[in-house]
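In the previous lecture we treated proteins in isolation. Real proteins rarely work alone, and many bind small molecules. This record shows how such a complex is specified: first the sequence, then the SMILES for S-adenosylmethionine.
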Amino acid sequence: MSKFDITPDNFTNWYVQVPKIYMIWPARGIIEEMYEYYTKLFRERMVEPFANLDNLISARQMARIKKAYTGTNFEADKNMLINVYSFIGITAVHLSIPPFLRTHELFGSPLNTTADYCSPFEFERAFGSSGNFFEFDIVASKHNILTCNPPFVEDIMRMAAERLVSELDRAAAAGITKTIVITIPVWDPETQRRLRLKDYGMPFAAFDILKGSKYFLEHDVLDKFKYRYYDYYKNKLIPACFSHLIIFGNGRPAITASEVKKKWLAAAKHF
Ligand SMILES: C[S@@+](CC[C@H](N)C(=O)[O-])C[C@H]1O[C@@H](n2cnc3c(N)ncnc32)[C@H](O)[C@@H]1O
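The predicted 3D structure, ligand included, written as tokens:
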């Protein structure tokens, strides 16, 4: 079995996301079709260039992956990367915190990061990835500040919240201080009502876990139109959603919410 074969381990990063995206499509059969295509990508390692494959990413993304590459066959790995994210990523995983903190992005891909980063697929290590977030050792990281902007998928956000708490428990036990800058959407009814947004009345487990933790140091809400997310594909800022900005950490925080907001707005001026 090649390491590119689909396994429960590597697909669990996406199994929640894929059905959720395609469930909203009227034809239910599309889910099976998409799963089949997705597994084929890995099974057959689809690295053949389709027409204009390179045009699917921006010049900035291309420069980034070229610079980060440490493998032995850039053409094949680049084509695999674009194939995988063209299928799975463009609609759901590309929006980013504008690049302003040269730290470690706990959720990312070679196509939407500028700093050190984790990403879901093993083959992305050739592009400098530190591997899957759920296996990444935050305590051993050289960075004091790390950012966490997970896919906006409830189960992934809940699992990420649980893991951040356990990683900070380990950091505290080791006497090491870490600060995590987290952004997640305003999906809790309380904040939705306070902001007069549509209240879906749904519990938001990830936010509850973070808020209930002793590592929840500071909190603010980011206005959708003022704090826009960066789209690496289009090289522009998008007013995606109102977000919780959470400074999460053990010990004294290495950055405050107001510093993050200031840097966010300053970075946005460049786009
Ligand atoms: C909202 S984007 C984050 C974009 C940008 N890197 C940032 O931090 O703002 C979420 C990213 O999480 C990545 N992702 C999904 N599962 C992951 C996992 N298990 N480990 C690391 N990254 C993962 C996706 O590839 C996607 O690029």
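Summary for your notes: The longest helix spans residues 154-174. The chain has two domains: 11-92, 117-123+127-268.
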